[in-house]
TrEMBL record:
Organism lineage: Bacteria, Bacillati, Actinomycetota, Actinomycetes, Pseudonocardiales
CDD domains given in the database record: crotonase-like (cd06558)
Organism superkingdom: Bacteria
Catalytic reaction list: a 4-saturated-(3S)-3-hydroxyacyl-CoA = a (3E)-enoyl-CoA + H2O; a (3S)-3-hydroxyacyl-CoA = a (2E)-enoyl-CoA + H2O
PANTHER family: ENOYL-COA HYDRATASE, MITOCHONDRIAL (PTHR11941:SF54), ENOYL-COA HYDRATASE-RELATED (PTHR11941)
Family designation: Belongs to the enoyl-CoA hydratase/isomerase family.
Record organism: Lentzea flava
Protein name: Enoyl-CoA hydratase
Pfam families assigned: ECH_1 (PF00378)
Length: 257
């Protein structure tokens, strides 16, 4: 397929998927999410996938706020459902998927990374779920997946505050597997571990992934439905309109108390 916002490169059975919207810091537009969904639907062939963003300040800066700012609740629900579908398709791929994070992985970017089997990061990486600063909540699985990575109390703190954490703190919390000094070192390490994995039974690795996902995912469907409904309702609030408008105007939001 001819993708407009993705760059694909396959080498030795490893498919590197690069979100390529550098002018928008690789933000997840509806088009980008649709292309990711289509790519990961029934993907066969590669023995592993690396998910990354084009080189620059961001891995994936988040969802595209310019698009969200004018969405109705119904459109917000559709947008959230599309993001959730992408993360589920990543999660359900039968091969290992590594997120290679270099730069900002905020909001939807953090959620995309968490859908992968594990995360490698450079020292430039920054993680967070800052949706509350816009009058929103995480809508692509953040409320459901973050606590499974870092624990309930820490997930609540990060989501409620919208606070960002650097790569070192993300590693300490268990969100990131390893931290590297450079982008090149990160990709080299990812390929090394995939070489180790490739030496094992593909069927066994796939089965392990399926079992881990099933055990870890008990209650996920119910959680995602609740999150999606709350995400939809967030689009009915004045805070969402104020938060997105303030972001686009580069001013401090004035939320109602």
């Amino acid at each position: 397929m001819d993708y407009q916002t993705l760059v694909l490169d396959e080498l030795d059975g490893v498919l590197t998927v690069t979100v390529n919207r550098p002018a928008a810091r690789n933000a997840l537009s509806e088009q980008t999410l649709t292309e990711l969904r289509d790519l990961f639907t029934g993907l066969t062939g590669p023995r592993a996938v690396l998910l990354t963003g084009s080189e620059g300040p961001a891995f994936i800066a988040g969802a595209d706020i310019r698009e969200m700012a004018t969405m109705t609740p119904e459109q917000g629900e559709t947008f959230g459902a599309l993001g959730q579908e992408v993360t589920r398709r990543i999660e359900q791929l039968p091969v290992p998927v590594i997120a290679c994070v270099d730069g900002y992985a905020l909001g939807g970017g953090c959620e995309m990374a968490m859908a992968c089997d594990f995360i490698y990061a450079t020292r430039k990486a920054v993680f967070g779920q800052p949706e509350v600063l816009l009058g929103l909540i995480p809508g692509f699985g953040g409320c459901v997946r973050l606590f499974r990575r870092v624990g309930v109390a820490k997930a609540r703190e990060l989501i409620y505050s919208g606070r960002r954490v650097d790569a070192v703190d993300a590693h300490r919390l268990g969100l990131v597997n390893e931290v590297f000094d450079s982008r090149e070192e990160m990709f080299a390490a990812a390929r090394r571990v995939l070489t180790d994995i490739a030496a094992n039974s593909p069927a066994a690795v796939s089965a392990c992934k399926s079992v881990i996902n099933t055990v870890d995912g008990l209650g996920v469907a119910e959680g995602l439905r609740a999150e999606l409904e709350a995400f939809r309702l967030a689009f009915t609030t004045d805070d969402m309109r104020e938060g997105t408008a303030a972001f686009l105007a580069k001013r401090t939001p004035r939320f109602r108390t």
